[in-house]
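User: Quick one: structure for sequence A, then sequence B.

Assistant: Sequence A:
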Amino acid sequence: MNKVFITGATGFTGIHACEYFIKRGYEVFGAVRSHFHPIKEVRSVLCDLMDAKGMKVLFENIQPDMILHLAAQNHTGQSWEDPISTINTNVIGTMNLLEGVKGTIPSARILIIGSVIEFNPCHSIVPNHPYGLSKYIQTLLSTSWSSFYDLDIRIAKTSNLIGPGHSNGICALLAQKCVQHRNVDGKGFHFHNILDRRDFLDVRDAVSAYDCILQKGCKNETYVVASGKTYKFLEVAKELKRLSQSDLPLTTEHFLSTPGVQYSIEKLESLSWKQTISLNQSLKDTLLYYQEQ
């Protein structure tokens, strides 16, 4: 039985990843900070990515075949408030993980989860925010360690993930507000620009893409994990309101139409990956999750 070690195993994507790999017949080791993992089939492993020596001991004991590195500080707002913690988590934590792999299981396949909104020096000389800078450094570090030490590292640059489960993403926050406003007299939802466009992908499709990259991807390659389509915040909000039968008020500072960034997923599709869950189904499942809470 193949072993997969998942960091960020109790997070939004981590829960789905653990469920997915268990169903695929893997022995799943989930990194936790203190408590046992909520999925009983997951083998909980106390893990502190800031503990470099501890990471080496952990990998010596587990000897995983694959590593899915999901743990990160993913909130752009928080990165402005606490840039040091963001850099430590996203950069130093990744370095400690890779150093642990290098000294113990150099043949393991590793997937580092980056972001489509990370800083790109080809497009700008100034980073967009501390989060974007941290993810750029994480990617640069990972590709460098892959070349320096002949590690089997792949990168996934992921768009906005949505779907059932606890998340701080805009679709989850909107779904929560729609459910609350239908049941009680709550406040409305405010946008910076309600006509902004984003690429949304169901978290379950993203996890299947991660597996595909681990199985069929190439060493030191970067894959964009996205839907390849963009939607206005207004479109998403209207559909959530319709599905939930909510009259949630929507407000915005700006009403400016923007083209949005359309990401190419040809490289990922060349690995025989396909999106299977529509935006509408993702929104339905997100609403159902919060309605059941």
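Sequence B:
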Amino acid sequence: MSTTFAIGELARQTGTKAETIRYYEKIGLLTAPLRSAGNYRSYSETDAQRLRFVRRSRELGFSIDQIRELMAFSSHGEADCSTVDNVVRSHVEDIEGKIRDLQALRGELSRMISRCPGGSIAGCRILEALDAPPSHLDVPTGASRG
């Protein structure tokens, strides 16, 4: 006999809110679970493993579409793993672009802080810069925008 879990137990086991589990079902990341006689959701260990896969993938920043793609690959055990590598490589490139953008943003904010002479909030140069038209706050030239 296989073990089954109610949604609350699955939520506790995986560190996932019940609302998120229902959302993942709705968008097809998790299959609709069996229902008990009282119409309660009944999850298997396979459902828990799949949810852990989704959770870990989300923690690593993969999009819902990328997770769908990775899960589809996992059902083709004999396929060339380069397909998985390509998804992950693309994700790494996206992360690297975000890191460049964040570093440029950090530089701009650090410059704003360094130019702050102190004094009263009424004369705050940082608030003044934030209130300026967007062109004054653009990320410095050379930073990736993607």
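Residues 141-146 have pLDDT under 50 and may be disordered. The chain has two domains: 4-61, 89-137.

User: Thanks, that's what I needed.
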